[in-house]
Amino acid sequence: MQPELRKAARRGRASRQAAVSTTVAPRTRKVRPYTLLDEAALVAIEDQADWILQNIGVEFRGDQVALDLFAAAGANVDGERVTFEPGLARKLCSTAPSEFKLHARNPANTVTLGGDNVVLMPGYGSPFVSDLEKGRRYATLEDFQNFVKLTYSTPWLHHSGGTVCEPTDVPVNKRHLDMVLAHLTLSAKPFMGSVTSPERSQDSIDMARLVFGAEFMEKNVVMQGNINANSPLIYDDTMSGSLRIYAAENQCVCVSPAIFAGAMGPLSPAAVVAQTLAEAMVGIALVQLVRTGCPVVFGSFHSTMNLKSGALTFGSPEANLASMAISQLGHRLGVPVRSGGGQISASNAPDGQAMQDSTGAMWATLLSGAHQVWHSAGWLEGGLVMSYEKFIMDVDHCGVMLTMLQGFGVDEEAFGRDAYLETGPGQNFLSTQHTLRHFITANFQSDIPEAGSFETWSENGSPTSDQRATARWKQMLTNYKAPPMDENVLAALNEFVARRKASMPDEWY
């Protein structure tokens, strides 16, 4: 290698190492979404969703307020069951915005949902965590805080997430306070609040208000709440009550039916997609009845099953096709879409199966044009486990996928004509000025240490990718620095958490 190139290479390595924490991940796509279904198929699915809502309906259990709102809007209410004439649910959804900003504590991290925007976030809801040294275990508050720190530290995730893992060492009725506190203080990216009861949803809103201010939150979205339909075709009062709390405060509600084909709905992808649309439209309609124009996200979570054993499967072709169809339907509904995919897997380890499942699901998700992708990092065992090593492997793949969504340029500089003039036939391009101008940023640079040649890899103990990922997550936690926060705001948050905890007994179940 020529001396000039060696010097540039040293500068490049230093620049890449410094850029690990300062890289800004792309937040938009240039590659167009893939359209799986034609117009006739989309209309057939929408007609089936209307058929479900007219002939079967959706039950709202224990929420008379929701039932009264639907009755006043023209739906048919019989006991706790609500049915809709064709087109009514879609009409009620029409006031939801097609695009909106989700503000972060640091405005540089504010994201937009809808349009050509892409927002990636970590896994959600796992009661267990795992790493190669300590193995599989119940998650603690320290684990939760670690994943918030890791998510904040990587440029490839745009959103801090919600219940990234369940801190089981804190009482059930109090842990939401610690989780929201972690999102607000250890990160400055967008986040999700609690939805496990209306009271906990209100606590989340109140804590966010201490940070963002009541006046700002009245006009702007700073947080999200995830509302799952209790598929098939039920909303319980916990979910609908929390939905109404977020909607009343003009904060984003993500409505996410969860359908496992063959258990919560028929087996076929067409039926799963139609039922998802039906359940989601009803939830979105309720949001609009509580507060017209409140931002929503059309979410989904679905999987197939091993029909021999009953075990859930993830990343299957049928589920991936459903993800693609749901994105199309969400675009037609005119609201941002949360994919049912992400880097999900039923594997019990961060192995080849885990990455195969995850890659298939993530490809389908991003090609579909989904705007928000949950479970983008860390997911194992069908969501039972957040894995430290898989988190790192997944985040690296997020960087690959976001880079691919940008396509490539075809301008004068991209063609590198000066490089041809500088060299000649049969000569290499390594030391050309074009190479020196671009080699630092030309290719995606993995954050997982390279294994090197076979001989070097063997001499270093033959470390596999998950073992190399262990070193990476430990380094990230060592290097983590909390984003600054006003001391008075921090004191107010801590006082709120202490006061709320003191007002309630410990409940572990």
From TrEMBL:
Stretch list, region Disordered: 1-24
A Pfam family: MTTB
Stored Gene3D superfamilies: Trimethylamine methyltransferase-like (3.20.20.480)
Signal peptide residue numbers: none
KW Repeat (keyword) present: no
GO biological process assignments: methanogenesis; methylation
Domain of life (superkingdom): Bacteria
Keywords: Methyltransferase, Transferase
EC number per UniProt: 2.1.1.-
Entry-linked InterPro entries: MttB-like_sf (IPR038601), MTTB_MeTrfase (IPR010426)
GO molecular function, one term: methyltransferase activity
Methyltransferase among keywords: yes
Record-stated family: Belongs to the trimethylamine methyltransferase family.
Name of the protein in question: Methyltransferase
